[in-house]
Design goal:
This is Trehalose-6-phosphate phosphatase C-terminal domain-containing protein. With 70 residues, the chain is of the alpha+beta class. The protein is 43% helix and 14% strand. The protein has a two-stranded parallel sheet with strand order 1-2.
Amino acid sequence: NSAGVAFNKGHGIALLVEQTRCKLSDGNILVCGDSESDLPMIEVCLGRNPHNVYTIWVTEREDLKKKVRI
């Protein structure tokens, strides 16, 4: 965009929620990922429902496993 910020998957989740008028604060959220580019999705979901976000992560990278656990 003109501000120099790259659109990421977290922005996509936020846009989808806004356009569908979905409330992530209700119920449980499952985030599935396999790479660092999926981390922004977790951040957005945790920001809207910090106690009910669950993940399935498919990776052999130890550094990525640690980031997801935090």
